[in-house]
Specification:
By secondary structure, the protein is an alpha+beta fold. The chain contains eight helices and twelve strands. The mean pLDDT is 87.
Length: 264
């Protein structure tokens, strides 16, 4: 048997941490002296302690660590770990995107953007639309795109696009519309024909991952104000190239178009 201090040195888990794990019924000592309260561990518990140590290094919550340790099925354990790793990767992706945005914002002399004024005619497209919460846009978008691509397929005559009402940004809830241009828009499931009205747009292209798109939005908005225009809505995006086209985010291109009109 090992004292708690000896077990701590062998597992690199502090005495305080071992006591906390005991209280949480995560790693209970093999023996607790009923008179002194001293905790003693067996050498057989070292691998378990090491697993806990690694899982906690990955920020797996104690409740999930407990589930992993108590699950006898190795496939279930693997799934639990994989789910947490995916959450970590999602956080890492958001962190990287935030760093990219900050680097662009903190440049002493930010690179100027190219803006084109474009008159878009009215056209009918195949679309999926809904009122969504801002935090749900990503999941809703993925489902809508999958449904659109299944319905339109090779009949698409242009890249995927999206329209987003001002309320989605201002109130964190608003109408979103994703569409594919096609000669004969089908009506199936959530997919149906929608007429996009004619509009004057100030258009620029965002390069890279969409998570940092707000920097380009800000630059486009600045250009619009400096050129004596007023921004209307909804915002239009066209996804010229993305993850389906290249694994390199530097190759991704998103057109951002703001409906505008001159105020002077």
């Amino acid at each position: 048997m090992l004292t708690i201090g000896e077990f701590s040195r062998l597992t690199h888990l502090s005495v305080r941490t071992l006591r906390r794990y005991h209280e949480a019924a995560l790693l209970e000592p093999a023996v607790v002296d009923e008179f002194t309260g001293y905790r003693y561990y067996s050498v057989d518990q070292i691998p378990t302690a090491q697993v806990i140590h690694r899982l906690r290094e990955l920020d797996v919550p104690l409740s999930d660590v407990q589930r992993i340790l108590r699950t006898p099925d190795p496939d279930v354990r693997a799934t639990l770990v994989a789910d947490h790793l995916q959450r970590l990767e999602d956080v890492l992706d958001r962190t990287r995107a935030a760093v990219v945005s900050l680097r662009r914002l903190l440049r002493p002399d930010p690179a100027p953007i190219d803006v084109e004024l474009r008159a878009e005619p009215a056209r009918t497209v195949a679309a999926v639309e809904a009122v969504v919460e801002h935090g749900d846009v990503e999941a809703w978008f993925a489902g809508a795109v999958a449904e659109l691509e299944a319905a339109v397929g090779a009949a698409a005559t242009g890249p995927l696009g999206g329209n987003y009402d001002n309320a989605l940004f201002e109130e964190e809830r608003g109408r979103a519309l994703v569409y594919l241009p096609t000669a004969a828009p089908p009506r199936t499931g959530r997919v149906h024909p929608v007429v996009l009205p004619a509009v004057e747009l100030a258009v620029t292209t965002h390069v890279g991952e969409h998570d940092s798109v707000e920097v380009t939005y800000g630059a486009l908005g600045t250009w619009v104000v400096e050129n004596a225009m007023s921004v209307a809505g909804p915002v239009r995006e066209v996804y010229l190239a993305g993850p389906r086209d290249s694994s390199d985010p530097a190759a991704w291109r998103t057109e951002i178009g703001w409906p505008v009109f001159r105020v002077s």
